[in-house]
Amino acid sequence: xxxxxxxxxxxxxxxxxxxxxxxxxxxxxxxxxxxxxxxxxxxxxxxxxxxxxxxxxxxxxxxxxxxxxxxxxxxxxxxxxxxxxxxxxxxxxxxxxxxxxxxxxxxxxxxxxxxxxxxxxxxxxxxxxxxxxxxxxxxxxxxxxxxxxxxxxxxxxxxxxxxxxxxxxxxxxxxxxxxxxxxxxxxxxxxxxxxxxxxxxxxxxxxxxxxxxxxxxxxxxxxxxxxxxxxxxxxxxxxxxx
Amino acid sequence: xxxxxxxxxxxxxxxxxxxxxxxxxxxxxxxxxxxxxxxxxxxxxxxxxxxxxxxxxxxxxxxxxxxxxxxxxxxxxxxxxxxxxxxxxxxxxxxxxxxxxxxxxxxxxxxxxxxxxxxxxxxxxxxxxxxxxxxxxxxxxxxxxxxxxxxxxxxxxxxxxxxxxxxxxxxxxxxxxxxxxxxxxxxxxxxxxxxxxxxxxxxxxxxxxxxxxxxxxxxxxxxxxxxxxxxxxxxxxxxxxxxxxxxxxxxxxxxxxxxxxxxxxxxxxxxxxxxxxxxxxxxxxxxxxxxxxxxxxxxxxxxxxxxxxxxxxxxxxxxxxxxxxxxxxxxxxxxxxxxxxxxxxxxxxxxxxxxxxxxxxxxxxxxxxxxxxxxxxxxxxxxxxxxxxxxxxxxxxxxxxxxxxxxxxxxxxxxxxxxxxxxxxxxxxxxxxxxxxxxxxxxxxxxxxxxxxxxxxxxxxxxxxxxxxxxxxxxxxxxxxxxxxxxxxxxxxxxxxxxxxxxxxxxxxxxxxxxxxxxxxxxxxxxxxxxxxxxxxxxxxxxxxxxxxxxxxxxxxxxxxxxxxxxxxxxxxxxxxxxxxxxxxxxxxxxxxxxxxxxxxxxxxxxxxxxxxxxxxxxxxxxxxxxxxxxxxxxxxxxxxxxxxxxxxxxxxxxxxxxxxxxxxxxxxxxxxxxxxxxxxxxxxxxxxxxxxxxxxxxxxxxxxxxxxxxxxxxxxxxxxxxxxxxxxxxxxxxxxxxxxxxxxxxxxxxxxxxxxxxxxxxxxxxxxxxxxxxxxxxxxxxxxxxxxxxxxxxxxxxxxxxxxxxxxxxxxxxxxxxxxxxxxxxxxxxxxxxxxxxxxxx
Lengths: 242, 843
Known about the structure:
The complex is a heterodimer. By secondary structure, chain A is of the alpha/beta class.
């Protein structure tokens, strides 16, 4: 059994416009090991978020294959992908995506309640405590600051104990100091829970805290660099040139 | 059932996202429940009243003794039966006598309703009995005690029979209300009838065979009777017997009731329509709020099917809870309606049947399916990718399709309420045309207002610009509000203005009383009495009852008879050489000299219905005697004139041999602005008349007018109550429509305030916006109401149309005040929440 929790094989994503097919991602192959933290970086419009959406099974590639663990998520329908997401995946978003009508506690416990976990409430309290918000459990999102809202989102994501956590610009809406605190918390929780972390970011400093960095530009995989041993494993451009 | 769905629903409710959807639904169900409960109970009450009018469920009537086969069939169906015979006869007590209306009944009479009796003359201590008098006893009406100067225990003679008066009749169930119920009642046992020797060949006796029993047996008897009559139709056999059922006994009443129920429910439908509109708008906003939640759930791996299931479950809970609440409130509201209508019905209304509950429950669920579900339908199909790409289009069901579903839902409901596809289609078409006209006028008003606003300063311009910019929503609000307000104004106008105006327009010499049933030999005496009392009379008319039997030698068929009121029953004929007041000759000539043969004049509408023209020969039958006369002229008659009017008028001489009764109208005292009963005090001649001429009948027209006014008052007040509920639905539309643009308003006003606009300017702009909206709604409502009232005055009341400035004032004022207050109330958060918080809230 391979040690890769995410594998892609030559995935491309095209969308049809009025005049022609626009290629957003082109021939991307990569692997992510279990428990690894990976940053996807690149300029705006490079296709980072599209790649994240594909890896998380929120969308399907036009061609190519994606495996999450043992599951080929390109070989199944939306219902099948939903089941795999329910089993393996958690999310953190740039805009927090907290539900305005629910309190912090209800926001955190909701995904666990949906998956039928009986200890949803106690676990939610535990994780809110972990992110330092045990005194704000009954507050509604609009009563919380941006940083606090993202902390609730982190508690929500980790409380479900996902195998893979996808984070889309998790500090993008926060000031530098708050952003730093959130990323500290993110990595701390990631370490505690041994979750595989895939995050999309603009921030070099945040990316550098990950064990590997995938750079994409104009829909192409430019590099996948492991920061710890600092080994460049592939260069899509070189490969495609060959 | 998944508990998490209930939890999510509860959280949505707590978050205030469901308020409007639920209130609209509760209100719609409440209106329908109140209206249908009320209508159902009134209908049942009237049916019961009618059954007791008949003193039975079914009655066979005839001029000869009821045939054995009719009795045998009743026995076969195990129906309970009773017999009675009705005739007029002189009764004597000492030197006094009176032409009484005698009713000989079997012991089992009455089968439905009860006799109300008293054993003392004050009418105190009334006892109720479900049986007739014993043999040898007579029960008599109060006035007979005075007429014959007798008391309880005295003897009276009926034919050759002596009977002891044992009770005073306070009320009998099948007394009847028509003019025919003239002579004072004497009730005796049917078994005594032979001994009286009053029944002889040629005696005019009405026989009735009364039956009661369960619904199935009654229905079986009816169909047996109808089949028997149908079989006889082609034979030349004469029809001796007629079957009287509660339905045909009071057909008009039943018809009116059916129409009344449909009318009430249809006016309730406007409430449902507005509530539906509010629900659709509120659901759209609810759906927008749920979009993120659903996208997140899908990203977390919830399958589409479970989200759809959850959606249905939540909507089911919303529908069930709101319907239950609506039914509860409707139950209370129907008591208000009953309270208003109290006094119109003399019976205690029975409890409602199952239909109103079913109507209410189905209304609730159909509303959810027709108005809320289409706005939420797309939610489960939202792409999970939306959590990353918020700009993805959501597949909201097209407005056209949602409108179509809403209309189908309404059509289903109205069809079910009115039980007629044509009525419901016409009703919906009328409502939508009304809406379209209102929308068109509103749009023109908005254009005017916008032009006016462009050169006004600061907040006025801002407010007016808002109206124009959001004209879609503005139109929805205007249409919802103005139509409801219009109906309310019409009903209020009917109640407060029309009756008064109708009375004002009655000529000053409008009679105050009708005197009828005055016998030939009494006319001179009565004339003298009236002279002594200084009471002015109009013309005296002799009156004879008869019917038309053939036209130009051809017998009138049953089908043709059914087409005209004037043919299907006995009508009153008169004879006079002077054209009655307020009659106009439309064709032919009124007599200037005695005609050669028998001639008559006929009323225009009857002439049209039966298809006769001047020169036609018509055969008449009066008391079985037949004669033919030539149609000399056709008259139009002003039935509103409150003078004695007749369908058929002969030239004097034609009716001389038929012992007519006389009728006249007199004027004694004011009839305007009177409460029921007041007139009798003003007209002392009435008590002298009753004493001296006990068989004559005095009908007080003032009483009639006051009673009509009372009934109209109550009916319109009831309608106003319903329309107030409908207006509440209109308020919900206003709330929901503001809700659609709420976030936009919140953001705009936050930006305005951030840029330095004072709170005053923002409140000012909002006030202007809502006040102008209210003024336009009030204006449209007033124009519409005045137009409707114009037609009601001209066509229903046959009177000159008048302006109603008070209604215009009421319309404009209530429009402005209601909409401004409600609008500001709904927008208070926009004004009070600090701009930073507003911006963060919608970020």
